[in-house]
Amino acid sequence: MTSVPQLRRATPADSAAAFALVRSVLAEYGLGIDPIATDADLADLEAHYFTRGGDFVVLVDDSDRLVGTCGLFPLDAGVVELRKMYLLPPLRGQGQGRRLLDWALTRARELGFRRITLETAAVLKEAVALYERNGFRPDCSSLHSCRCDTGYARDL
């Protein structure tokens, strides 16, 4: 029996593994990665998340292999975007997505944000259902990612 993955703050050394994980999950759903625009943030987690006042965490297994990611990307003083919340297939359906989302909501409040937004693709049905169960409502007012066809938001 494997143990519960550990949640920890990402480091610059996690960038390549996070990129590979995101690429792998997107490919499962027929979506492509965009290293020049949408996914450029993964190349420098420090600059895109930490120095901007956001945060980024990873889930790691017993061998310190990345199995999940989740980021909070500040948009303005009161709004943060949930980004890069992905899990490898063996961890889905075990409460780890909810764990990442709970971390994001709690951490966003701790950082002083009042609203959280996200962009997603309708093909990611499990993620969409998780967001809707947790109070996110459709809001496509700020979609900018080429692979996303819907957006959500909720107040914190």
Explain what you see:
The protein has four helices and seven strands, in the order βααβββαβαββ. With 156 residues, it is α+β, with helices and mostly antiparallel strands. It has a domain of 108 residues: Aminopeptidase (3-Layer(aba) Sandwich), CATH 3.40.630.30. Strands 1-2-3-4-5-7-6 form a seven-stranded mixed β-sheet, sandwiched between helices. β4, α3 and β5 form a beta-alpha-beta unit. The termini are far apart. 35% of the residues are buried. The model has no long low-confidence stretch (mean pLDDT 92).
Task: Summarize the topology.
Elements: E1 6-9, H1 15-28, H2 45-50, E2 55-60, E3 66-76, E4 79-87, H3 96-110, E5 115-120, H4 125-133, E6 137-138, E7 150-155
Low-confidence sequence ranges: none
As a percent range, the share of helical residues equals 25-40%
- Major sheet: arrangement of strands: 1-2-3-4-5-7-6
Which CATH top level class of the domain at 6-113 fits?
Alpha Beta
Outline the biggest β-sheet.
7 strands, mixed
CATH-defined architecture of the domain at 6-113: 3-Layer(aba) Sandwich
List keywords for this structure.
alpha+beta, 4 helices, 7 strands
Q: Nutshell version of this structure?
A:
The chain is built from 4 helices and 7 strands, in the order E-H-H-E-E-E-H-E-H-E-E.
